[in-house]
Design a protein that fits this description.
The chain crosses the membrane at residues 62-84, 104-127, 133-153, 165-184, 210-229, 250-280, 300-326, 347-365, 371-392, 404-424, 444-466. Belongs to the NRAMP family. InterPro entries: NRAMP_fam (IPR001046), Rossmann-like_a/b/a_fold (IPR014729), UspA (IPR006016). Keywords: Cell membrane, Ion transport, Membrane, Symport, Transmembrane, Transmembrane helix, Transport. By secondary structure, the protein is mostly helical. Helix content is 69%, strand content 5%. Strand 3 (498-502), helix 21 (508-520) and strand 4 (525-532) form a beta-alpha-beta unit. The longest helix is centred in the middle third of the chain and has 38 residues, at 243-280. Residues 11-15, 478-484 and 601-611 have low confidence and may be disordered.
């Protein structure tokens, strides 16, 4: 079978088996992806918008949370359907349907959304560390860069371990707020009234403030990167790709989505109810800062409630940062065919998010972080249309989805949700620009920078909507990073005349020598290379005469003599200092045409710390490299 696209999250694609299972075991096999997605629905960004909404307007915005959750359930189920039926994540499907320039723009917008999400997690983690351990915010922000190591470790352990960690974090958050609900004792009747919608379009200042918070809540709840993430995560389940298999996968993933997102709704509602019960009811109407919420909880209810609050904040921030990394990998590989190491991508995303957080602390003080949090969620909401509109197009396409294309009723609800999101965002942007112009009518940057960007984004949104309608059956195969397979006509055997073998005097040496001899036989010349890495060797090179160097000479000579006694033409070469550079230099000088190297068998963390000689050599030489991995006992 010839795949026309690259597997989404290839290292864990189809890694969780669901076949030959029945009943609750079958359900448990599918549970997991939506929990990773739900983390984004209860991250520190949600906290800021929920606290701001609850403290300023009491229970009046609970209906916005409820409607947001319903929209999220609908859109996430569509994302899961796309991943299951077409075997494509949302970024890959966009790559097939839109031209390169549009995909590049969509990638930039999606990346901005991930940075905005990451910004919220940085601020939340830093605030949580300060509240619990009195660590200055600037240090807390800087420390968040270290979570790259945790993410790398969990990714290396497999999808189930990653899901287990995330679910444990969700459990901590949920339990913390369940206890806090008993402490604050909310007014149940007023909470019920909060599910009745209120008019956000009156035009007065209060309605405008409610609209801003409501859009922030929508942006914090229905996150664009979660749609990319969910369409990919469902592909970690290995299913039978038949009509029956698709139906079962869609059904069980719907259960997964409903359970996980309703849990997220409970947490969000609990935060808003907590703010309304603790602050609005006691006359604190402008608690937009998470730090202020902690202090007021301590003032009103003692030490237990704020401690639970801070623990839940750290847990939500730490779990959200992992899902943001996965989403970053999906949009980068899907939209622009760029594949880099997960730890490097995580590091770059985190640095890009840390910069505005540090800038805000230094220039606007700690009180500016709350406003930055809410702004980050509004940015997420503004980007949402660029993920939702293509998703609806792709899942409505009967030619490619077949019997699993969404029906008319679902399509109508999905387009209504998209229209609501785009309309609210358009109103917010328009009112914001009007405010800027009325406040400073002579400001040039509004007309030269802001307005052109807004117009460009609006045109792109219209294009994203119209393009699939005009080219309904146009679908290009995705260009995968490694290209399309070439036609093979004839294969001639390659013979090597000079083979280099790297020696490190470990158990792996025998395997390396055996594989080298298999390539060249007794006709080839063999150069055994060992590199002395002592401090003296790095500074003095071949002039070093320490004890370790002398022992290495003797050991290498033993190998050479053994090969000669067996009838092979062999010689030894000692390199000094950096292993990769020394090996590459010997290979070039000796005119080697093939290299056999041993892999140390490091785990991902050791490779990250110590580096990999194999990868470095591979980039420094122009000859084939055979890597021999030690056999596990």
């Amino acid at each position: 079978m010839n795949n026309t696209h690259n597997e989404s999250l290839g290292n864990v694609h189809g890694s969780v088996t669901t076949e030959n299972k029945t009943g609750w075991r079958k359900l448990m096999a599918f549970l997991g992806p939506a929990y990773l997605v739900s983390v984004g629905y209860m991250d520190p960004g949600n906290w800021a918008t929920d606290i701001a909404g609850g403290s300023a307007f009491g229970y009046k915005l609970i209906w916005v949370l409820f409607v947001s959750n319903l929209i999220a359930l609908l859109l996430q189920s569509l994302a899961a359907r796309l991943g299951i039926v077409r075997g494509l994540d949302l970024a890959q499907a966009s790559k097939n349907s839109y031209p390169r320039f549009a995909n590049f723009c969509l990638y930039i917008l999606a990346q901005i959304a991930i940075i905005a999400c990451d910004l919220a997690e940085i601020i939340g983690m830093a605030i949580g560390l300060k509240l619990l351990f009195h660590l200055p915010l600037i240090w807390g922000v800087s420390l968040t860069i270290t979570d790259t190591i945790l993410m790398l470790y969990l990714m290396n352990k497999g999808m189930r371990k990653l899901e287990g960690f995330i679910i444990s974090m969700i459990f901590i958050v949920g339990l913390s707020f369940l206890v806090e609900m008993f402490i604050v004792k909310p007014d149940v009747i007023e909470v019920a009234k909060g599910f009745i919608p209120t008019n956000l379009f009156k035009g007065d200042k209060i309605s405008q403030q409610m609209l801003y918070i409501a859009i922030g809540i929508i942006g914090a709840t229905v996150m664009p990167h979660n749609l990319y993430l969910h369409s990919s995560l469902v592909q970690t389940r290995k299913i039978t790709r038949t009509e029956e298999g698709f139906r079962a996968a869609i059904k069980f993933n719907l259960f997964d989505t409903v359970i996980a997102l309703n849990l997220a709704f409970f947490v969000n509602a609990a935060i808003l109810i907590l703010a309304a019960s603790a602050f609005f009811r006691n006359g604190y109407f402008e608690v937009a800062e998470i730090q202020d919420a902690f202090k007021l909880l301590e003032h009103i209810f003692g030490t237990i409630a704020p401690t639970l609050f801070a623990i839940a904040l750290i847990a939500s921030g730490q779990s959200s940062t992992i899902t943001g990394t996965l989403a970053g990998q999906i949009i980068m590989e899907g939209h622009i065919n760029l594949r880099i190491e997960p730890w490097l991508r995580r590091l770059l995303t985190r640095i890009l998010a840390i910069v505005p957080a540090v800038f805000t602390i230094l220039y606007y003080g700690e009180e500016g972080l709350g406003k930055l949090l809410i702004l980050s969620q509004v940015v997420l909401s503004l980007q949402l249309g660029f993920a939702v509109i293509p998703l609806i197009h792709f899942t409505s396409d009967r030619k490619r989805m077949g019997k699993f294309a969404i029906n008319f009723q679902t399509r109508a609800l999905a387009w209504a949700s998209a229209l609501l999101i785009v309309a609210l965002n358009a109103k917010l942007v328009y009112e914001q620009i009007v405010d800027w112009v009325s406040g400073n009518p002579s400001s040039i940057w509004i007309y030269t920078i802001v307005v052109p960007i807004v117009i460009g984004v609006a045109i792109l949104l219209i294009y994203v909507f119209i393009r699939p309608l005009l080219f309904k059956h146009y679908d290009r195969p995705a260009i995968v990073p490694h290209g399309i397979a070439n036609a093979i006509t004839e294969l001639d055997a390659i013979t090597y005349s000079h083979i280099a073998i790297t020696i490190d005097f470990s158990k792996n040496d025998t395997d390396c020598l055996r594989h080298a001899i298999m390539q060249g036989g007794k006709k080839a010349d063999y150069t055994l290379i060992h590199v002395v890495e002592t401090a003296g060797a790095r500074y003095y090179g071949g002039q070093v005469l320490d004890n370790e160097t002398q022992i290495d000479f003797d050991n290498l000579d033993k190998y050479v003599c053994t090969l000669k006694n067996l009838g092979y033409n062999a010689q030894g070469q000692i390199g000094y200092g950096n292993p990769a550079s020394a090996i590459a230099e010997i290979v070039k000088d000796e005119k080697v045409d093939f290299i056999v190297m041993g892999s140390h068998g490091h785990k991902a963390l050791k490779d990250l710390i110590f580096g990999t000689t194999v990868n470095s050599v591979r980039h420094k030489v122009n000859v084939p490299v055979l890597v021999v991995k030690p056999q596990s006992n």
